[in-house]
Specification:
- By secondary structure, the protein is α+β, with helices and mostly antiparallel strands.
- It has four domains: 1-57 and 249-417, no CATH class; 58-247, no CATH class; 419-509 and 697-837, no CATH class; 513-670, no CATH class.
- It is built from 25 helices and 21 strands.
- The strands form two sheets. The chain has a six-stranded mixed barrel.
- A hairpin with a 2-residue loop joins β12 and β13.
- α9 runs parallel beside α12, α14 (420-453) runs antiparallel to α23 (754-792) and α21 (696-735) packs parallel to α24 (800-827).
- The relative contact order is 0.12.
């Protein structure tokens, strides 16, 4: 082989068999592009939010807690750091009424001090400084409120006991990155006006925030530690722009983390495609390889040839993935739309893209390892055979490579997600899908081959022979298509079921409105106005957990954060309630009942998820802080909570006898005629102005918008994954094209008509596509039912017509594509096809 090195021979293989090389490159590109696209989106969002961190936080340090605690903390901070600037804000839901039009609706009141925001700006529609417009007796509102209510600057709104004049509008604010999640229009007012409105009373639902700006040259990290230590006793939430991510970034990162599963599935399908393209190229080149062996070339020389082949095409695939990922990331950013912060900055996250490329390259190595090892099975005498023999089965080697591949893929998934637990879950789900799907496909395809071969009619017997063609990749094609369609079908069924059961329909007995901030003394009048004398009003006590068995809750909270799983926090503010009987949403899952007669003193029943997440146990002593007072109760039971029934639910449910004397409000959820709500809102605004009505149809509309937006994003990635399955189909068709051409010619010589040959091929393609569609239907419905039941506590509706249309269109498209790719095999004249044999 002097003068002809491995690299030159590898280039020759690429030049003489460009179809396989192109399919390898495309499979690598499609498989890796999703990872690069998500890295690009994450990089753009992170760069934007990092550059705007101070403005988003509006301060160096923010502290959330009760008003009295924040008063003491602000006084201490100003003494500790002379020159420190502070600002206060209170956010709460309330009702606003325009008396002239008798329109009443929910608004978000944001009462702020004159120093807010300490960083950033709030831009008014008139161009005036914000605090020049916001004066006592006036309000500043968003454009959404003016347009929705057909109001103008100078009109007045009744808020609580005050009539306040609209002085200006807000067109942009740097402390809120996106307005997508705005459930109700924001109304700015002064702190004094909020107090004078008589809306606030001890126990009212509100978010109190203290913002602190440190003097120049102050060490932010040390100051933050001091503030946390000072506020630790009441578990106030202390955060800083330098150490904490804003909520929108956490939300986007969580969404991207779940989207990584689709990207890893696409990577898996792309890896199967690269392995298939390589196997097809090796099958086509067996005689050439046999000739090289016959000329005395060592095995290592051949391994180096195909090692170069894989390396060169992988590099091209990664280059194509970078371009494709750039296009896909732009599409994803446009689909996210106003879910993302305004003013996105262009970013090229080189480290993240290199990591994604490394993961794609590593996956390519894992998937091409087994075909490359088969090079050692090629014998020199293959050049004497008319037919290309199939590679011998090496079960032990195959099992070893599969075990190595699963372990290696887990490490790659861990590197990509940055979290071991989600990576383990993702790889486990992928392995389960492949195992179950592969088993189903193997049984189905084996049954088809055996069943069709028993027919006496020629057409099905020949189709059975085609399905059993030596070296065919039908099972791999069906599995790839099954996995792709399973994801698409699962996403479709989830979206349709969530819309149908949570957005579009209200069960007849389910509440469609919640009423909050009812004072205990107002309960009789409230029931009278609503004509609901038996309405159950739930006590609502705002407070925080401070310790479990005298261990500070911050330490308990860290248990739940291990593994980077995210989720709920014990350090946040909760709504506590009390009662003797089991709530309609609840089921006791651990304990002798809701209350344990063997426990002396106060008792509390806890949400069952907190047992697993934070390690809580029955018998633990739970200490809570309510308006500066501390109470301790023993955990008596754990409850499962059905959160899908639109009833008030509570994570901590106390037995009567402990919290009754604590200032609190009442709340309830009621089912009311839809056309009664506007008049009822007006009546409550006049008689009980502090009562807030939360119309669940508004919540459902916002949730629907979110589902629709995320559904579009997920569908793009899902169909992108389907393209990997299509590439695998193309690889299989091209790998079998030569044998199909020869078979067609032989059938024609033996007297078969072209119509019969085409019929055999179409039947074979239909069986392959139909098997993939049926397997996807079985897996997709099972996965959807499991997710709906375990995550959302909903039942599965199949929607037969659109489900059948999706699977039918996919199967039909596969058949047409297969026919288009192999049409030349059936049109070639027999003598022309056979003269090269």
């Amino acid at each position: 082989m002097k003068g002809l090195g491995p690299l030159k021979i590898a280039l020759r293989e690429v030049r003489y068999r460009p179809i396989y090389a192109a399919l390898f490159v495309l499979s690598m590109a499609v498989g890796t592009a999703s990872l690069m696209a998500l890295a690009g989106v994450s990089g753009v969002v992170r760069k934007t939010l990092t550059s705007q961190a101070k403005e988003l936080w509006s301060a160096d340090i923010t502290v959330k807690g009760s008003e009295g605690v924040l008063d003491d903390l602000e006084k201490w901070a100003k003494g500790r750091w002379p020159g420190l600037r502070g600002a206060r804000s209170i956010d709460t839901l309330s009702m606003a009424q325009h008396r002239a039009s008798r329109k009443t609706a929910q608004v978000t009141l944001s009462a702020i001090s004159s120093e807010y925001p300490l960083y950033g700006t709030i831009t008014t529609g008139s161009g005036r400084p914000f605090h020049a417009a916001l004066r006592p007796g006036s309000i500043v509102v968003g454009d959404r409120l003016l347009k929705g209510w057909n109001l103008a600057v100078g009109d007045s709104l009744r808020i609580g006991a005050l009539d306040l004049t609209i002085a200006d509008t807000v067109v942009e604010r740097t402390d809120v990155p996106t307005s997508f999640f705005e459930l109700s229009p924001t109304v700015f007012l002064t702190l004094d006006d909020l107090r004078d409105s008589q809306l606030m009373s001890p126990g009212s639902r509100a978010s109190n925030t203290l913002s602190l700006n440190l003097p120049p040259e102050t060490d932010l990290a040390k100051a933050l530690a001091e503030v946390k230590a000072r506020a630790a006793s009441e578990t106030t939430e202390v955060a800083s722009w330098a150490t904490d991510n804003p909520g929108i970034l956490k939300f986007i990162q969580t969404i991207l983390l779940y989207l990584q599963f689709l990207a890893l599935l696409t990577l898996t399908l792309g890896g199967i495609g690269t392995a298939t393209a390589l196997s097809a190229a090796l099958n086509a080149g067996q005689k050439s390889l046999g000739m090289i062996f016959a000329l005395g070339a060592p095995r290592g020389f051949v391994y180096r040839i195909w090692g170069w082949w894989v390396a060169l095409l992988s590099a091209l695939g990664l280059g194509a993935a970078l371009l494709l990922g750039r296009v896909l990331s732009g599409r994803l950013l446009s689909l996210f739309g106003d879910l993302l912060p305004r003013g996105l900055l262009p970013a090229f996250p080189a480290a993240a893209l290199l990591q994604a490329a490394g993961v794609g390259l590593g996956a390519g190595f894992l998937f091409t390892l087994l075909p490359l090892l088969k090079l050692g099975d090629i014998a020199p005498n293959v050049i004497l055979s008319d037919d290309v023999p199939a590679f011998p089965a090496r079960r032990l080697r195959t099992a070893g490579v599969l075990a190595f591949g699963v372990g290696g893929f887990f490490l790659l998934a861990w590197a990509q997600t940055g979290h071991a637990h989600p990576a383990f879950q993702y790889v486990g789900i992928l392995a389960l899908l492949i195992f179950v799907g592969g088993g189903f496909v193997a049984l189905a395809m084996g049954g088809l081959r055996r069943g069709l071969s028993r027919f006496t009619w020629t057409l099905p017997r020949l189709a059975a022979r085609g399905l059993a063609r030596p070296g065919n990749l039908n099972d791999a094609v069906v599995l790839s298509v099954t996995l792709s369609l399973t994801v698409i079908l699962t996403l479709f069924l989830l979206e349709r079921n969530l819309f149908s059961q949570m957005i579009e329909s209200f069960p007849p007995d389910a509440p469609n409105a919640f009423f909050i901030n009812i004072q205990p003394t107002q309960a009789p009048l409230f029931r009278q106005l609503l004509d609901k004398p038996a309405a159950r009003l739930f006590p609502l006590v705002r407070g925080r957990v401070v310790a479990v068995n005298d261990t500070p809750v911050q330490e308990i909270n860290r248990r739940g954060d291990r593994g980077g799983r995210g989720g709920d926090r014990l350090t946040r503010e909760f709504g506590f309630t009390y009662g003797e009987d089991l709530l309609p949403t609840d089921t006791v899952v651990e304990g002798p009942g809701l209350w344990d007669p063997r426990i002396d003193g106060p008792q509390v029943s806890v949400f069952e998820n907190y047992k697993k997440r934070f390690g809580l146990r029955r018998g633990d002593r739970l200490t809570v802080s309510l308006l500066g007072r501390r109470f301790t109760a023993t955990v008596s039971s754990f409850r499962a909570i059905n959160q899908s029934v639109r009833q008030p639910f509570f994570y901590f449910y106390f037995r009567p006898g402990l919290l009754e004397e604590v200032p609190h409000t009442l709340m309830t959820g009621l089912a009311l005629p839809r056309d009664r709500l506007p008049n009822l809102q007006n009546e409550l605004a006049e008689a009980l102005p502090n009562v807030t009505v939360v119309d669940l149809s508004d919540v459902a509309a916002l949730t629907g918008r979110l589902f629709h937006r995320l559904g579009r994003i997920v569908r793009v990635l899902g169909f992108f994954g389907l393209s990997s399955g299509i590439l695998l189909l193309l690889s299989s068709l091209l790998a079998s094209l030569a044998s199909r051409t020869k078979e067609s010619a032989l059938f024609r010589v033996l007297g078969a008509s072209r119509r019969q040959i085409v019929g055999v091929a179409l039947l074979e393609y239909t069986l392959i596509a139909g098997t993939g569609a049926l397997a996807a239907l079985a897996l997709g419905t099972a996965a959807s039912a499991l997710l709906l039941r375990r995550v959302f506590e909903l039942r599965l509706e199949l929607f037969p017509a659109p489900t059948g249309l999706i699977l039918g269109a996919a199967a039909g498209g596969m058949v047409l594509l297969s026919w288009a790719m192999t049409r030349s095999a059936f049109l070639a004249p027999p003598m022309e096809a056979l003269r090269h044999e």
